[in-house]
Design brief:
This protein is 30% helix and 27% strand. By secondary structure, the protein is an alpha+beta fold. The chain has one domain: Alpha-Beta Plaits. It has a 4-stranded antiparallel sheet with strand order 2-3-1-4, covered by helices on one side. The protein is globular, with a radius of gyration of 14 Å. The model has no long low-confidence stretch (mean pLDDT 94). This is EthD domain-containing protein. InterPro entries: Dimeric_a/b-barrel. It comes from Microbacterium mangrovi.
Length: 104
């Protein structure tokens, strides 16, 4: 079923430039090579509104099928096809696959 992968992230303190470079130039292209990933949109938290989650960055990946995407992302991570940068605070990542239930 079509849907999205939603990921909230935060860089390691002091590594924001490395994080941005890795995300835009390595991570996004790696994910766009997966057959089920159609597009990626990234967002930064509006500093005036804030949030209680502790992450400033949101990525929304449009996928053709959430089950297939989960399998592909897992396989890419396990096989080294999707390396994760040390600039990502891995202890502060939240993610989930959401199936489309309505479109207007």
């Amino acid at each position: 079923m079509s849907g999205v992968l939603v990921v909230l992230t935060e860089p390691v303190e002091g590594a924001e430039a490395d994080f941005e470079h890795w995300y835009e130039n390595v991570h996004v292209p790696d994910l766009l090579r997966l057959p089920s990933v159609l597009s990626v949109r990234r967002f930064a938290l509006n500093a005036k509104t804030g949030n209680g989650t502790g992450q400033r960055y949101l990525a929304v990946y449009e996928v053709t099928d959430t089950t297939q995407a989960e399998q592909e992302v897992t396989r890419a991570g396990e096989t080294g096809q999707m390396p994760i940068s040390a600039s990502l605070d891995g202890s502060n990542v939240q993610m989930g696959y959401f199936d489309l239930i309505s479109a207007h």
